[in-house]
UniProtKB/TrEMBL annotation, chain A:
Keyword list, A-Z: Cell membrane, Membrane, Transmembrane, Transmembrane helix, Transport
InterPro entries: ABC_transporter_permease (IPR051393), MetI-like (IPR000515), MetI-like_sf (IPR035906)
Name of the protein: Sugar ABC transporter permease
Biological source species: Thermohalobaculum xanthum
Membrane topology: Multi-pass membrane protein
Annotated family: Belongs to the binding-protein-dependent transport system permease family.
Listed GO biological process terms: transmembrane transport
Keyword match Oxidoreductase: no
Keyword Transit peptide on entry: no
Membrane-spanning residues: 12-33, 78-99, 111-131, 160-182, 209-227, 268-289
Residue ranges of domain ABC transmembrane type-1 in the record: 74-284
Pfam families cross-referenced by the UniProt entry: BPD_transp_1
Subcellular location: Cell membrane
GO cellular component: plasma membrane
UniProtKB/TrEMBL annotation, chain B:
Domain ABC transmembrane type-1 residues, every copy: 65-255
Species annotation: Thermohalobaculum xanthum
Protein name from the UniProt record: Carbohydrate ABC transporter permease
Sequence similarity: Belongs to the binding-protein-dependent transport system permease family.
Membrane disposition: Multi-pass membrane protein
Keyword Transmembrane: yes
Superkingdom of this protein's organism: Bacteria
InterPro entries (alphabetical): MetI-like, MetI-like_sf
CDD domains in UniProt: TM_PBP2 (cd06261)
Keyword Membrane: yes
UniProtKB/TrEMBL annotation, chain C:
Gene3D superfamilies: Periplasmic binding protein-like II (3.40.190.10)
GO molecular function: maltose binding
SUPFAM superfamilies: Periplasmic binding protein-like II (SSF53850)
Superkingdom of the source species: Bacteria
Single GO biological process annotation from the record: maltose transport
GO cellular component, as recorded: ATP-binding cassette (ABC) transporter complex, substrate-binding subunit-containing
Family in the record: Belongs to the bacterial solute-binding protein 1 family.
This protein's name: ABC transporter substrate-binding protein
One Pfam family in the UniProt entry: SBP_bac_8
CDD domains xrefs: PBP2_UgpB
Protein keywords: Signal, Transport
Classification via InterPro entries: SBP
Origin species: Thermohalobaculum xanthum
């Protein structure tokens, strides 16, 4: 009998690994190995016609920290994250509450909110380019109706990053709304009825009952929004290319530029490692701290 | 009082909806008008299809459409196979090391393929997949998100069904195919929708690994077509943009209910 | 058309005598487009003509975006073992391409004799000649020219036949032309700001870099003064919008009458001509200490990692595409310059320039033109300069500060090459 159990267990183990192997091979090839290779590359110098690559330890990192552009880009990305995360989540929440309540033309409203989600970021950037173009753009045309001067939204350091941020919010709020809608529909009707009987106002009900119940969803969305604030950069390619004077350049764009426009792979690798480290910290917080409270098993 | 606040809210919801949809509406309108009319907001101007003709002639759009279609299909098929197998292993097979491997898989949620562009580019070149559709799709096939979803879906399948199938003589693979996969259909549907819209829209990675019109997906083609260096012609770019978003947008508008329901039902929290 | 075909065939025969062709050589060529118009069709047309005349050579011409994109695409192809034998890339990428050891000098390709190399305008060869060898053959080459709206000149009471000749003219006329909703002048400051700035620096009597690509002069007083002048056009004189002016949408803005004058690549000429609903003129850039413009645009490069047959076929293609007849046709289709004096002697271009004299402006300007800004590590040095220009124009930094920083960064980047 014991022998049989043992055999069964071994069989299961073999099955398990066979089933896992395609995923394991691909994950190793395109996630784990490249991460290690990036780390190694970040410790090597760049080879040129005169000097072959050699091990330089932390020099790429110290060069990076000495590069003022790097700090500008870090600051931009912090602003980008700091603005897009709370704003898109608040808008998503408002959208979900509205799209879930009994308002006229609810179908249209819901569709309108969600539509940007299905558009490619590149297409979204094209659409917004014509809002922002000075003189010709929609924003300026509207502004001129009220006698406002023409604003060069994408061409000024004070506004370029915000123009980028608005497009991101526009793109992701509708996506986050879906998660809130899903969560709202799991809230039992009788809670609402009970609140009505108690004479609680809609606002009180929302604040005291709905928002706490949405907490796990919010945390999930925050993590997603955080990841998006690293990876949503496609529109930079169309709208500003990181300019003017790096005012709207974000980290991933700078990595791309470093690697594929300046051909400085070691510097790009050093930056990649720093980004991975930050993401790793986020992951650690999520798995150890948040998951205890959100229970998604 | 209550009625008033409800009206205000309905009004707010409507205004937000209009603001949200306006970039798309404007582009749609601009695509059908001459550039001059579009930038001057000449609302009474005549409609025209010229922009679509110009845009269509300006790039191999049909090829781009085909590439994108192939790309999302390849990715989706790969993801279905790989995440089904892995999700099943994590959900229903007991073996040592499972928990550690699962944590490793979850780690991948944070090791974004987008961040590893440099090394992944080197890897794809090394295995000879540079400038191929497979090369564009491969890094996304073993999706941790998908594995996680499948694991959740399979976990909720009652063990009795599994046992019943086994009694009837099904092997592991048969059970997976006949019991688990059909029961997880809503999950597959939701995942398919998410995956297709993600990869239809993906840009940075395809930009790096494609090098010719024969592999370039729509997004990359559109970005090259509309690059500001080309001297942006608002109406033509709008037409090109509308063309490239149309299939997904129409599909979304038609199957909207299923789209949203799929998200909700799959219980993505 | 038939004339062109006959000449094309003649040209092909001439090169075939120099080098017997291999059977079925396949060439992959990456090329950029940086100005408006459906230029891919034009290039495809030229390539199809070449293939018809040379059935043993197949050419895959791949349009790959702007200059930077094209360099990335071509180098990616090489790095991953995809075929690429030649490319049209930035004339100013020469130093970096040589440094990365991926292009070869034309002197080492059989059949590229000195007479042919000397048949192009010397000013257009400047960027491609490094360390005594020729690495790039001019193809889509330009200078900056001033486009101006003659109707607006008339409205402002200015003589539409005498555009500004000096910086002072530029300012006074600009002021007369500036109205509500119309700027006097727009000089683009995204995309290729260093290029426009180079023109101003040259006009102020100072070049931005040394001829060996190792030294930059960003913090020279004359250079700083040039940037101060550019900035003053919006802050002090109010004839240009504040902030940066977008390279890509500028043509549209000019066509919509949002600006009375614009500085732009001559490569836009045909697109402007086809779309303008008003009377417009084209002029050489104004002078301060001296007149001048940098050249710009793309050169043909041949990659090192190629077989003899491929090099011969590539050379044949390059000779075809830069032949006087093709250069003339290309110039008419785009506005780019005919790359050799012989191009301007062809019937086609003679007839065209008689009917449309602005097509000669860029060429006439060549006598005052200098090589486009290019150094080792050029992409990053250029990026530093671009940022300095944008910082100064947007008022984030003073011109002196911004240029001093760019100079410091350039010194740091170029240190390894000294």
């Amino acid at each position: 009998m014991a022998h049989h159990v043992n055999l069964e267990r071994r069989r299961q183990a073999i099955y398990g690994w066979i089933l896992l192997s395609p995923a394991a091979i691909l994950l190793t090839t395109f996630a784990f190995y490249p991460s290690l290779a990036t780390f190694w590359a970040s410790l090597m110098s760049r080879g040129t016609r005169r000097k072959p690559p050699e091990f330089v330890g932390g020099r790429n990192y110290s060069d990076l920290f000495a590069d003022p552009t790097f700090w500008v880009v870090v600051k931009n990305n912090l602003i980008y994250a700091g603005a897009t995360i709370p704003i898109s989540i608040s808008i998503a929440l408002a959208m979900a509450l509205w799209a879930n309540s009994k308002i006229p033309a609810r179908g249209f409203v819901r569709t309108a909110y969600f539509t940007p989600t299905v558009l490619p970021m590149i297409a979204a950037a094209n659409l917004w380019l014509f809002f922002y173009t000075p003189g010709l753009g929609v924003l300026d045309q509207i502004g001129s109706l009220f006698g406002l001067p023409s604003v060069n939204w994408l061409g000024q350091p004070e506004t370029a990053l915000w123009a980028i941020i608005i497009v991101t919010i526009w793109k992701e709020a509708g996506f986050f709304m879906i998660f809130y809608l899903a969560a709202l529909q799991t809230i039992p009707e009788d809670l609402k009825e009970a609140a009505d009987i108690e004479g609680a106002s809609r606002w009180t009900y929302t604040r005291r009952i709905v928002l706490p119940l949405l907490m796990p969803t919010t945390l999930f969305i925050v993590v997603n929004a955080l990841i998006n604030s690293v990876k949503l950069i496609d529109h930079l390619f169309i709208l500003t290319k990181g300019g003017p004077n790096d005012a709207s350049k974000l980290i991933l764009y700078y990595i791309w530029e470093m690697a594929f426009a300046f051909f400085d792979a070691p510097q790009a690798a050093a930056m990649t490692i720093l980004v991975l480290a930050v993401l790793g910290i986020v992951a650690a917080i999520k798995f150890t701290y948040l998951d205890k409270r959100t229970h998604y098993q | 009082m209550k009625a008033l606040s409800q009206h205000i809210e309905a009004f707010g919801a409507m205004v937000l909806a209009l603001v949200w949809i306006s970039p798309l509406l404007f582009a749609f309108w601009a695509a059908f008008h001459t550039t001059s009319d579009a930038v001057n907001f000449n609302l009474s101007a005549a409609w025209t299809l010229d922009n679509f003709r110009t845009a269509w002639a300006g790039a191999p759009w049909l090829r781009y459409f085909l590439n994108t279609f192939l790309l999302v299909s390849v990715v989706l098929i790969g993801q279905f196979v790989i995440t089904t197998l892995a999700g099943f292993a994590f959900a229903k097979v007991a073996f040592t090391g499972k928990d550690i491997v699962f944590i490793l898989v979850l780690m991948q949620l944070f090791i974004l393929p987008e961040v590893l562009i440099v090394e992944n580019y080197a890897m794809v070149s090394r295995i000879g997949l540079f400038d191929t559709i497979l090369g564009v799709g491969m890094p996304y096939m073993a999706s941790a998100f998908g594995i996680f979803l499948m694991r959740q879906a399979f976990k909720s399948v009652p063990i009795e069904l599994h046992e019943a199938a086994r009694v009837e003589g099904c092997g592991w693979f048969g059970i997976l195919l006949r019991v688990y996969v059909p029961l997880a259909r809503p999950t597959y549907l939701a995942y398919a929708l998410v995956s297709v819209s993600t990869h239809w829209n993906n840009f940075l990675w395809p930009l790096i690994v494609t090098n010719s019109p024969d592999t370039r997906p729509l997004t990359v083609g559109l970005s090259i077509f509309g690059a500001p260096e080309n001297g942006v012609d608002i109406s033509v770019i709008s037409a090109a943009t509308m063309m490239s978003v149309a299939p997904l947008l129409v599909a979304f508008l038609v199957f909207q209910r299923q789209f949203v329901q799929a998200f909700l039902r799959a219980g993505i929290k | 058309m038939t004339l062109m075909k006959r000449l094309a065939a003649g040209c092909a025969v001439a090169t075939m005598l120099a080098a017997p062709a291999a059977a079925e050589t396949e060439l992959t060529m990456y090329y950029p487009i940086a100005v408006g118009g459906a230029l891919t069709e034009v290039v495809n047309g030229i390539v199809a003509e070449f293939e018809a005349a040379n059935p043993d050579i197949k050419v895959n011409a791949i349009y790959s975006g702007n200059y930077d994109d094209t360099r990335v695409r071509a180098l990616s192809a090489l790095a991953s073992g995809e075929p690429a034998q030649l490319a049209v890339m930035f004339s100013i990428d020469a130093y970096d391409l040589i440094e990365q050891d991926i292009v070869m000098p034309f002197e080492e390709i059989e059949g590229a004799d000195a007479a042919w190399l000397d048949s192009f305008y010397p000013a257009l060869m400047a960027n491609g000649r490094v360390e005594g060898k020729t690495w790039g053959i001019p193809f889509q080459r330009s200078t900056i020219v001033a486009y101006y709206n003659k109707d607006k000149f008339r409205e402002a009471g200015l003589d539409p036949e005498s555009p500004p000749k000096t910086w002072d003219d530029l300012v006074t006329m600009g002021k007369a032309l500036t109205k509500d909703g119309t700027s006097g002048l727009m000089i683009p400051s995204t995309g290729y700001p260093y290029w426009m700035f180079q023109a101003l620096a040259i006009q102020n009597g100072k070049e931005l870099m040394s001829n060996d690509g190792l030294t930059t002069y960003f913090d020279d007083p004359a250079v700083i003064e040039a940037l101060e002048f550019w900035r003053s056009l919006s802050t002090e004189h109010g004839i240009m919008p504040e902030g940066t002016v977008e390279w890509g949408t500028l043509r549209q803005a000019f066509l919509e009458g949002q600006t009375a004058m614009m500085w732009h690549s001559t490569g836009n000429l045909t697109a402007v001509k086809n779309a303008a609903s008003f009377d417009f003129g084209v002029a050489e850039l104004p002078a301060n200490v001296r007149p001048g413009s940098p050249t710009g645009g793309g050169n043909f490069y041949v990659f090192k990692d190629t077989t003899d047959e491929e090099r011969q076929a590539a050379l044949k293609l390059i000779k075809f595409m830069t032949s006087p007849e093709q250069a003339a046709a290309w110039s008419i289709a785009t506005g780019y310059m005919g790359v050799s004096p012989a191009a301007y002697e062809t019937e086609a271009l003679k007839a065209y320039t008689t009917e449309f004299p602005p097509a000669l402006v860029a060429r006439n300007q060549l006598e005052n033109a200098v090589a486009e800004f290019s150094t080792f590590e050029t992409a990053r040095v250029r990026e530093g300069l671009n940022n300095a220009i944008q910082a100064a124009l947007t008022g984030t930094k003073t011109p002196a500060e911004a240029l001093a920083e760019a100079q410091e960064a350039a010194v740091r980047l170029l240190r390894d090459y000294q």
